[in-house]
Fold this sequence. Notes:
By secondary structure, this protein is α/β, with parallel strands linked by helices. Helix content is 41%, strand content 14%.
Amino acid sequence: MPPLSASALAIRxxxxxxxxxxxxxxxxxxxxxxxxxxxxxxxxxxxxxxLAHAAAADDPALYRYGPLGGAPELLAAIARSLDAAGRALxxxxxxxxxxxxxxxxxxxxxxxxxxxxxxxVLVLAPYWPLSVGGRRAAGAAPVEVAVQPALATVPGxxxxxxxxxxxxxxxxxxxxxxxxxxxxxxxxxxxxEAIADVARRRDLWVIADEVYADYVYAGxxxxxxxxxxxxxxxxxxxxxSKSHALAGLRVGYIxxxxxxxAAARRVATHTVFNVPLVAQRCAARALGEGDGWVxxxxxxxxxxxxxxxxxxxxxxxxxxxxxxxxxxxxxxxxLRGAPLVGLLERAIDAGVALAPGDxxxxxxxxCARLCFSAVEPGALAEGLARLxxxxxxxx
Length: 395
């Protein structure tokens, strides 16, 4: 077998692989585990989006190939949803939209469409681990630009200067997440303006990951594509996994300029051809009839956020998340000079799994991410109590 490429080797391991043996040992003992390391929700999806509603046994279309790039029913629902919320580019048409096998796949297709081998992408850190892996898989080189916690805590932080300093002749794009994964930070208008200014002056693409846009608790979510001169250079990603609890159906989408979307559609054709129609039908129903569900979920996540922030206050350093479903903790005080892995292993032994911070960028080796939407409220309370025992060194 020929050797694997460097990019393949860089992304082949799970971000949780170092903790896998401990997780397996805990499971073998039959211990209860609160999986706060996984970015998911305990909630069932909207009833209207269930497979029972979508998969009529007498509909032969569900067993055939579907339209490339998205079913008309879903594309129309996406356009209505984006327009109503004021997200991504204004007045999108089907030519501006691509439905893919989750936002991960959609973002990969966009990266392959806009980037050549060796191109550099500035990535605001900390970041979702698969964002870097996806850019590497597309042949590009991610360049981390550490902006947190300074962006949230340092008045007048020069974001434009930090981005400009990281640019080279090979820079082609800037990747941002708002609300951010792993820390829930929502980029302010002045931050979006700074990013847009750098992109316009240097003729860069912007890849805007807005998969948590429905869940904002402080401030206001805005799409950078709506700023002057940005609609033609921005691709924006969304996910039914995050908005409507449909992670298992793998439906996500991107919105962007027609030429970029046409190129990304060709990549999608040669990777998954089309997303299963039954999944797209569920997604369309979720977008069309799920507003009440999103509001209820958001209220529940807000309460879970408050519970988590209260439990961890004084035990870890963090900025309360503006949105999303995560708290990103600096655990330096609890580590007392020891490596993070030991604390994470003790947490697993106590029944709580957290995501290690080094998966989210260089310089975050003493941090960990906790997902407060992963388990129902009673389980979250118990999991937090166990974690507090670990942080207070009572276990």
